[in-house]
Write a structure and sequence with these properties.
3 domains, 453 residues, HATPase_dom, four-stranded antiparallel sheet, 11 strands, alpha+beta, membrane
């Protein structure tokens, strides 16, 4: 896509849009939570019943003679607020009366009753004017941050209620804690969702690379995502196509060479019939048979590599029991221990060839072969054991090399041509698995195959 950089679907643009969306959602959710929880977090004085309580106190003090009002006020006060009385005509009463006329109506406080005036002031953050501050200093003595409610009584005096802090509803620390918790949870939730969304194309690309590493015939990755990632995917697909073509051509060429070797081997055998020395003729035929076996094994290996079997579901334990039964029919019993049923997804014929090669090694080079199948979390583990002599740890990796044999004589009576483990590992790695070797403490060798569940 061509056009201005800010219109192109780039990683930088996605990050910028994500940050903008996160900030907007954080503010929206925080304000929404504050509105929804307003009555619970910061209820009004009327909603908490304070207005009715104050009204009852005012009515009580009006019924008391002026001389005894201060004593009565001290008696009705509690630890949350203080009650003071300003006598009619006093300096405090005159100042409060003037301040009440300057102040607009307060919706939080009950409406005037019986001609009473109401004065609501709060000394916090400059919310009170200079004149109102002087009134409070003169008539009340309230400190900064205080909440003040002054109510005029019928004889012209005033009853002043003073609270140093807002004691109704949650306190400031609790409100700040709730706001911080809401913001934190919102940021974490949106950030996790945004990070997951942004990293999804990269995860797909990583999975495609891993899949290609296990299976060179894997399908090409769809071109999607931001511009930078799409360019990387195109380059990866081009590289994958070239590697697949190279591997396919090489395999086809080697298979053709192995096939063409059959003709000269047949001619050598025919010419060997004219050798008069029986001993020399027998040696030549043995060598021809060994070469023929190597050619046949190589052809089978390359033919399997060229085949593209469809992935399907199958019963894994049944596949292993079939291999054990086949060897039992040949007079080589193979014990099976493990799960009775396990539905697995893969290429059953290829896996059967691979495990047949592993069991074949256990039969040829050891005795009392065993098969074990276990499922561990997200993996399937198959163990092929024998009670033979084992192999040196230095040869654990070498035995997987093509045509490698621990027994160097190349005598077919003591083993194959050295392609069994190579072919088995190729199939297992093509399924995203691995194969490792371990010498058993009780004697013998264990080949452990791990496959994705």
């Amino acid at each position: 896509m061509t056009g201005p950089p800010w219109l192109r679907d780039t990683i930088a643009r996605r990050f910028a849009l994500t940050i903008i969306v996160v900030i907007g959602l954080v503010f929206a959710l925080a304000n929404g939570a504050a509105l929804l929880a307003g009555d619970w977090v910061r209820p009004s004085a009327r909603g908490m019943g304070l207005v009715d309580r104050i009204n009852d106190i005012v009515l009580l003090l009006e019924a008391v003679p002026p001389a005894g009002r201060q004593v009565a006020a001290a008696a009705v006060a509690d630890g949350s607020f203080r009650v003071d009385v300003q006598a009619p005509g006093s300096a405090g009463a005159v100042s409060l009366d003037a301040a009440a006329h300057r102040q607009p109506p307060q919706p939080e406080v009950f409406a005037p009753e019986h001609g009473r005036q109401r004065l609501v002031l709060r000394l916090a953050g400059g919310s009170a004017t200079t004149a109102d501050r002087s009134v409070l200093d003169t008539g009340v003595g309230a400190g900064p941050g205080s909440y003040v409610l002054a109510v005029e009584v019928q004889d012209g005096g005033w009853v002043v209620f003073t609270a140093p802090t807002r004691f109704w509803g949650l306190d400031q620390k609790a409100r700040n804690g709730i706001k911080l918790a809401v913001l934190t949870l919102t940021v974490i939730g949106i950030s996790v969702a945004a990070a997951y969304q942004l990293s999804r194309p990269i995860r797909r690309f990583t999975e495609a690379v891993r899949r290609f590493g296990n299976d060179p015939r894997a399908a090409a990755l769809p071109v999607a995502g931001p511009v930078e990632l799409r360019e990387a995917v195109r380059a990866f697909n081009a590289m994958q196509a070239k590697i697949q073509a190279f591997v396919s051509d090489r395999t086809a060429m080697l298979a053709a060479i192995s096939h063409d070797l059959r003709t000269p081997l047949t001619k050598i055998r025919l010419r060997g019939e004219f050798i008069e020395d029986d001993d020399q003729r027998a040696r030549l035929f043995r060598d021809v048979d060994d070469m023929q076996a190597m050619v046949d094994s190589a052809l089978a290996f390359f033919r399997d590599d060229l085949q593209d079997e469809e992935v399907t579901t199958f019963d894994f334990p049944e596949l292993l029991r079939t291999i054990a039964d086949d060897y039992a029919d040949q007079g080589h019993p193979v014990a099976y221990d493990g799960l009775d049923n396990l539905v697995h997804r893969g290429k059953p014929f290829a896996l059967k060839r691979a495990f047949t090669n592993l069991v074949d090694n256990a039969v040829k080079y050891g005795h009392a072969p065993e098969l074990e199948l276990r499922c561990r979390e997200d993996t399937v583990v198959v163990a092929v054991r024998d009670s033979g002599p084992g192999i040196p740890t230095t040869a654990f990796e070498e035995v997987f090399a093509p045509f490698y044999r621990l027994e160097r004589s190349r005598n077919r009576a003591t083993g194959g041509v050295g392609l069994g483990l190579t072919s088995a590992r190729s199939v297992i790695q093509g399924h995203g698995g691995s194969i490792t070797l371990h010498n058993r403490e009780s004697g013998g060798l264990e080949l452990r195959v791990t496959l994705p569940a």
